[in-house]
Amino acid sequence: MKQLFFSLLLLCGALTLKAEDGHQLWLRPHPAAPVTVVSAAKNSLLLATAKQELQRGWQGAAGANVRLTIKKDKALRNDGFRLSATSVEAATEAGLLYGVFELLRRQQTGQPLAAGVSNPSYELRVLNHWDNLDGSVERGYAGQSIFWRKDSAFAVTARDKALWQAYARADASVGINGAVINNVNSSPQMLSGPYLARTKAIADELRPFGVKVFLSVKFSSPALLGGLKTSDPLDPAVISWWKNKTKEVYALIPDFGGFVVKASSEGQPGPQDYGRTHADGANLLADAVRPFGGLVMWRAFVYSPADKDRAKQAYNEFVPLDGKFRDNVIIQVKNGPIDFQPREPFSPLFGALKKTAVMPEFQITQEYLGQSTDLVFLAPMWEECLGSDTYQAGPGSTVARCTDGSVYPQRHSAMAGVANVGLATNWTGQDFGQANWYAFGRLAWNNTMKSSQIADEWLRLTFAESATTAAGQPAPAAADWNAHFLAPMTQLLLASREAAVNYSMPLGLHHIMSATYDHYGPGPWWAPDKMRADWTPPYYHQAAANGVGFDRTTAGSNAVSQYHEPLAAQFNDPATCPDEYLLWFHHLPWDFKMKSGRTLWDELALHYDLGVHQVRQFQQTWDAARPYVDAERFATVQNKLRAQSGNAVLWKDACLLYFQQFSRLPIPASVEPPM
Ligand code: GCW
Fold first, then answer.
1. What is the pLDDT of residues 122-179, one digit of tens each?
2. Are residues 98 and 141 in the same domain?
3. 120 preceded by cis ω (within 30°)?
4. Which of 463, 497, 520 is the endpoint of a domain?
5. Considering its fold, how many domains does the chain have in total?
6. What is the CATH number of the domain that holds 539?
7. What are the residue boundaries of the Glycosyl hydrolase family 67 C-terminal domain, all occurrences included (predicted)?
8. Rounded to the nearest 10 degrees, how much is the dihedral formed by the CA atoms of 186, 191, 194, 199?
């Protein structure tokens, strides 16, 4: 009896886990009006979720009838839906669920309800969790893994289940339908029985929200886990090992999504270890999952110390293999050619692979962007990448269109985001990190969505309620809230990424962060003897008495040649290369004349200075938002912004003083920027 009592107590505690503390993400509870859901579709897990969400969040007329209808319709693709004020139509049950979430979002944010048809840009919208089986998270800044734990890896608790459900619900509310639940630096143990059993338990909780589970696998698993002599992708024993292992996985999880592979990169094993190609490796796994409808996401993040310009390697390795991959393989390409830097030009692989499906990989966790301290809204960065014209199939061949099936025929399409989620009660460490999770889902659903709309939606959903609960405040009038909270905070979010570029790596500088493992803060001086040259910052900025920047022109590494004209010529000439990418592509003298008329040195200094001013203005904006925010989030974010302001000053001083030893020029006087 006593035991039962305690179990019940535990269960209740678990179910209210993240609910109690007010960290409800953008799904904050509202008093809902009664609603009747009418549906002819046969009851299923997803339909039950859709109904439950409607009942939980309905803000329309009390007692309304809402019709959920499954129907075939030429206008509806994949999980798309058609919306009116009281009906959702879709071709799939997942589509009904996404339609319901959209209807509720529109009710809450005051947008018109008769929205017509909305189809997802990508078939698969997937989070990559870099979660290790011991519960740690690589590049995670929000606590331990929500999926794995060190000591009790296999005991699935009620608390685990509640957490996974809350996580999946948040995913589904923004259209995310896949989760890769372990690190791409994968352990061979992932495919062992106990870990697969836990994977099944996770999949069971995610399923009612339409989120499929995927696994990252180590390419050498046949040898390391299976005890085979080799993991050569063409070896018959290896082929049958993967087939059997895959069967075992699908027997546990019939709707398992497939595999993600980081191969021949940063010490990970891969097909090249056996003299085979990426295509041999990817096709091996693709054939194993094909009978079950599974996918293989094969990462193109490859580079080695031998390469003179790391930015070129992925293109060099993958372009010759175009057309050699099975149609259930998608090549997963980071947005830029190096590594999630505050700003990179788009990876030249986008659009260059014409007979192979390619998917963008964005990093939601802020590895190089102040981690869980700095407030950086990433939608503008992703919008910039997706909107970049590759010219690969004529003007208008944007990264978005080259990956979503609009330009090239491709059987499957997907977009991945490296998650920023952990056990922290607010899920993401910095409260505003939630906005990046939200933004990823929204952009994966609609890759032409504007950052401004995403910011507006997220702020309304996340803070509108809190204005009424802020330290005994009466609810502000909507006009007042719009003018004094929504408008300035939208501006802040939209400016925040450029501010981070300004105070850390302006004008195309990159990889000048501390090169110790943590990647936090400045480190342009890093050049330890034993470290790989291609990991240490002097390699990337090349600062010397004669100037600064990495020469990737035709006279240098010739990385420009990987871009289609007119970009190659535009990037190759410092007179036409956009300022944003100047030092990415060019090594230029300190007194180089910029488009502004200033010297490169002065321009650099002013960008750093501007970044510092911008963060100080963010602090003022937030301070003025106090009446509209609950005390807890207000204080937390205020502290984070204070720390960010310190970070910005540190970046500015460290970088300018470091570069000054080469430029030998005075630092120009600070200019108060207009906001
Ligand atoms: O950005 C680098 C990170 C590694 C990461 C790697 C990758 C998972 O520093 O931590 O490893 O990229 O994307 O594979």
1. 999 999 999 999 999 999 999 999 999 987 667 999 999 999 999 999 999 999 999 9
2. no
3. no
4. 463
5. 3
6. 3.90.1330.10
7. 428-670
8. 80
- pLDDT tens, residue by residue, 242-288: 999 999 999 999 999 999 999 989 889 999 999 999 999 999 999 99
Cβ contacts of 387 within 8 Å, gap of 6 or more: 398, 399, 400, 448
CA of 355 from ligand 1 middle (Å) equals 27
Q: Measuring from atom 11 of ligand 1, which residue has the nearest CA? A: 185
Residue in 182, 218, 266, 420 to alter for ligand 1 test, most ligand atoms within 8 A of Cβ:
266
Q: Which domain holds residue 306?
A: 124-463
Structure tokens that stand for 333 in this block: 């390409």
Provide the edge-to-edge strand list for the sheet that holds 81-84. Answer: 35-39, 64-70, 87-90, 81-84, 116-118
Q: Please check whether residues 312 and 458 belong to one and the same domain.
A: yes
Whole-complex ipTM:
0.99
d(Cα 533, Cα 656) in Å, to the nearest integer?
Answer: 22
- Extract the tokens encoding 517: 């493992």
In a domain, 364, yes or no: yes
pTM for the model stands at 0.95
Q: What are the residue numbers of the active site? A: 266, 339, 367
Identify whether residues 103 and 175 lie together within a single domain. no
> How far does the centroid of ligand 1 lie from the alpha carbon of residue 668, in Å?
37
Q: Ligand 1: which atom is nearest the Cα of residue 185? A: 8
Ligand 1 near 442 CB (within 6 A): no
Question: Which DSSP state fits 140?
Answer: -
- Would you say residue 459 lies in a domain? yes
